Amino acid sequence: MTIQQLSQEIGIGIDTLRIWERRYGFPVPDRDARGHRSYSLQQVEELRVVKTLQSLGQRPGKIFSLTPAQRRELLSELSAQGFPQDRGLQKLVYQMRPGEIGSEMSRQLDALDLVNFIHQYAVPLLQLLDHGWNSGQLSIAREHLISDQLEALLRTRLSGSSTGSDPSILFLTLSGERHKLGLLLAAVLFEQAGLPAIWLSEELPLSEVPALAQELEVVAVALSFSGHYSARQAKQNLSSLRKSLDPAIKIIAGGHAVRQFTSLPNLLICNDLKQVDLLAKRYFQPSSGRKDKS
């Protein structure tokens, strides 16, 4: 497996993999005649454990000081403490028949208001999916099946366009970013806070964002950069976008790749969905009242 394939498979940026190799001596790839890196399946599985431990708050220095067996033991201990233990979620992720998943999500949405559904159900569900995928307990096909049904349900709750004179936000991902669910959760929450969300389901080249934002007359452009995205590339993209975008239009960015990003003019970093209400009130003038369509 090449380093590009490994990055896509595990969700760890290429730059991060190279830094770990230099700093911690892992992973140590084989190299072909041209010097290109190649990774074994055992290294892939060990990196799944590393990625999951990181998501549980463990720092690389501590993780790589442990043996593979010690990492798995630590993962078992932390997983029991840090991941959703809700039996309904566990059943949906690992046991429920495909034809029942969508109706179960809809039932949960009907039982909760939309904001509570996101915080109390969708976020724990995504955490459980991420854990299952990174630990190898959940197949890619199963993860996609569940994620796609959650995305379809949430998209029905978006108005789809700005209405009247309400300030609106354009939500999009740039070319190369395939992970959109976290951004979709944010879009729904911003709309519930009174800021209409304009959602683009397809990736967009960076060069086309400024003109589209200007045409739509949005007050902000929101983007997400997952762990699959290079942190260095995310920084370059945000800097380029800030230079080419109307200075009055804010940028909202979130995701693993921008966790340690330094500030740019009119750039808001949002890596906690619980911040959405506060950001909406502090930096925008949302229309009053929520727009729950559930």
Question: What tags apply to this protein structure?
Answer:
single chain, 294 residues, alpha/beta, Multidrug-efflux Transporter Regulator, Chain: A, Domain 2, Methyltransferase, Methionine Synthase (B12-binding Domains), Chain A, domain 1, Rossmann fold, 3 domains, 5-stranded parallel β-sheet, two-stranded antiparallel ribbon, 7 strands
Our count of helices gives: 13
The name of the CATH architecture of the largest domain is 3-Layer(aba) Sandwich
Largest sheet: 5 strands, parallel
Bin the helical content: 40-55%
| Helix/strand order, N-terminal first | HHEEHHHHHHHEHEHEHEEH
CATH level 1 name of the largest domain: Alpha Beta
With strands numbered from the N-terminus, the spatial order across the biggest sheet is 4-3-5-6-7
Principal-axis shape: globular
- Helix/strand-derived category reads alpha/beta
Strand content is 5-15%
Describe this structure in words.
This is DNA-binding transcriptional regulator, MerR family. It holds the Pfam family MerR_1. GO terms for molecular function: cobalamin binding; DNA binding; DNA-binding transcription factor activity; metal ion binding. This protein has 294 residues and is of the alpha/beta class. The protein folds into 3 domains: 3-80, Multidrug-efflux Transporter Regulator, Chain: A, Domain 2, CATH 1.10.1660; 87-155, Methionine synthase domain (Methyltransferase, Methionine Synthase (B12-binding Domains), Chain A, domain 1, Orthogonal Bundle); 169-283, 3-Layer(aba) Sandwich (Rossmann fold). 52% of the residues lie in helices and 8% in strands. It is built from 13 helices and 7 strands. The strands form 2 sheets. A 5-stranded parallel beta sheet has the order 4-3-5-6-7, with helices on one face. A two-stranded antiparallel sheet has the order 1-2. Strand 5, helix 12 (231-244) and strand 6 (250-254) form a beta-alpha-beta unit. Helix 7 packs across helix 9 and helix 8 (114-134) runs antiparallel to helix 10. The longest helix has 21 residues, at 114-134. The chain starts with a helix and ends in an 11-residue tail after the last helix. The mean pLDDT is 88.
